[in-house]
């Protein structure tokens, strides 16, 4: 069966699990459906799936199992109440499937579907309502809304529009049930796979200036959220995104946080003193207020014992090697043997032992044969120019990563934000190349957006390259 069939079979199992399961159980399921994978390949699928958590004792659990029937909440803004439509934005994070746009969800109130509508709101309001997606992610989510088809992502580099049209949900059914500004909407996922959310109103508007019991319960929730979040910093660090930070938080603390007295995350962040949004390279994370997230912390100290900078491992990825081969073929560069590819792919600063080089060359030779046999210049042409631009930047990133790998200066003594950015840029450019290799048609469609993002990274890279080179030249203080 082909890769698409493997995808469908895997999804059928993984998206229907309501409790913990083992890799062996998943492996057995795939075997029954004629999917011949090794156990290592099964582990790879599980560890790379965004909606799967790894537990202890070789067990796994899905987001569907963790987040179904767990309470979370939000309060519509004054602007939303005035227009009669609220925007989903980040309000379903991390409970809703992260692979879908938040406007895809079906909302129910007393069993009745809430109608969707469109509304034009100020960009500042929309940005606030997408803040939990994080810097670098919120803008794409905003413009992935179906109502933003006419807006070019490329135009973002010239400035954001003052207002934007978004898909939202009507507040009329809530008004009919007595909802007023200041009240809370409680939510819980009842069908994670089909994105169905049950909602109900929690009355919180009151005229008295006195603190009531509801206020005290709310403050207790905020205090608990802060305590749990800070504990997460030490255990998991900044994670791969804010969504993943919050996913781990609610996985481990749902008993304390997912109840009908829950507050909203963005509501908490508005008045929190200890934690808030902090810079994390070209992205952002929830972290200690006013403190940049370091590259090295308790969560990843093992990196200190490794010689190569982690992004160097990308050079062994199949899609990276394939893209370099296609680059050489499309540009008629010398590719008589694997040594030509080795010189193109690996930074000059890196060196191999004789045995290591022999193994690398053998692997590269196999990849060259496979890619050459299937290479079609005409089919490759639409993305060749864009791929060339990505490879130029990726090559510079790898050269800098190699310099960092070879330094005797401890990583903790190097500029932390620049190290974070170096890793992020390596991951992002690698992601572009992966899309060009495995989804070339889609990459061609998105090429304008890819190159816009690439130009921004190239400008930022100039700065971190200078800073890190300067730090690498400094003598170590004793």
Structural features, described:
This protein is of the alpha+beta class and 478 residues long. 49% of the residues lie in helices and 13% in strands. It contains 18 helices and 13 strands. It has helices at residues 3-14, 23-32, 39-48, 63-67, 78-83, 123-128, 138-143, 172-176, 213-236, 242-257, 265-271, 318-330, 338-345, 354-374, 377-406, 416-438, 440-445, 447-473, and strands spanning 21-22, 52-54, 59-62, 72-74, 85-86, 106-109, 112-113, 116-122, 163-170, 184-191, 196-202, 275-280, 283-288. The radius of gyration is 25 Å and the shape is globular.
Write a compact overview of the structure shown.
The protein has 478 residues and is of the alpha+beta class. The protein has helices at 3-14, 23-32, 39-48, 63-67, 78-83, 123-128, 138-143, 172-176, 213-236, 242-257, 265-271, 318-330, 338-345, 354-374, 377-406, 416-438, 440-445, 447-473, and strands spanning 21-22, 52-54, 59-62, 72-74, 85-86, 106-109, 112-113, 116-122, 163-170, 184-191, 196-202, 275-280, 283-288. Helix content is 49%, strand content 13%.
């Amino acid at each position: 069966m082909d890769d698409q069939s493997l995808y469908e079979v895997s999804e059928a199992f993984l998206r229907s699990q309501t409790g913990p399961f083992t890799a062996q159980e998943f492996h057995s399921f795939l075997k029954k459906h004629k999917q011949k994978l090794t156990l290592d390949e099964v582990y790879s699928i599980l560890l790379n799936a965004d909606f799967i958590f790894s537990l202890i004792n070789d067990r796994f659990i899905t987001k569907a199992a963790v987040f179904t029937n767990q309470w979370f909440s939000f309060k519509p803004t004054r602007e939303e109440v005035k227009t009669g439509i609220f925007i989903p934005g980040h309000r379903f994070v991390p409970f809703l499937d992260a692979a879908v746009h938040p406007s895809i969800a079906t909302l129910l109130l007393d069993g009745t579907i809430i109608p969707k509508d469109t509304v034009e709101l100020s960009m500042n309001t929309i940005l606030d309502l997408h803040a939990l997606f994080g810097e670098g992610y919120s803008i794409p989510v905003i413009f992935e809304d179906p109502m933003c088809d006419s807006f070019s992502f490329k135009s973002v580099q010239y400035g954001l529009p003052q207002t934007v049209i978004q898909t939202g949900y009507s507040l009329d059914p809530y008004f009919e049930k007595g909802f007023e500004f200041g009240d809370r909407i409680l939510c819980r996922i009842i069908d994670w796979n089909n994105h169905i959310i049950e909602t109900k109103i929690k009355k919180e508007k009151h005229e008295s200036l006195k603190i009531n019991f509801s206020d005290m319960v709310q403050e207790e929730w905020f205090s608990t959220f802060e305590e749990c979040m800070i504990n997460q910093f030490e255990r998991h660090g900044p994670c791969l995104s804010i969504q993943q930070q919050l996913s781990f938080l609610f996985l481990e603390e749902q008993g304390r946080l997912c109840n009908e007295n829950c507050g909203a995350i963005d509501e908490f962040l508005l008045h929190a003193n200890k934690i808030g949004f902090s810079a994390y390279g070209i992205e952002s994370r929830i972290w200690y207020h006013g403190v940049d997230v370091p590259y090295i912390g308790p969560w990843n100290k093992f990196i200190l014992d490794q010689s190569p900078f982690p992004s160097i491992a990308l050079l062994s990825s199949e899609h990276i090697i394939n893209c370099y081969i296609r680059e050489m073929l499309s540009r008629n560069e010398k590719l008589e043997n694997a040594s030509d590819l080795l010189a193109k792919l690996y930074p000059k600063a890196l060196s191999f032992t004789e045995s290591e080089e022999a193994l690398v060359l053998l692997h590269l030779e196999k990849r060259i044969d496979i890619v050459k046999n299937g290479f079609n210049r005409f089919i490759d042409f639409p993305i060749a120019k864009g791929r060339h631009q990505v490879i130029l930047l990726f090559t510079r990133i790898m050269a800098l990563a190699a310099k960092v790998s070879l330094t005797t200066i401890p990583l903790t003594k190097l500029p932390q934000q620049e190290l974070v950015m170096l890793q992020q840029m390596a991951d992002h450019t690698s992601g572009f190349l992966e899309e060009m290799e495995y989804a070339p048609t889609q990459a061609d469609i998105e090429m304008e957006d890819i190159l816009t993002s690439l130009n921004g990274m190239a400008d930022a890279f100039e700065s971190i390259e200078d800073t890190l080179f300067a730090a690498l030249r400094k003598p170590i203080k004793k």
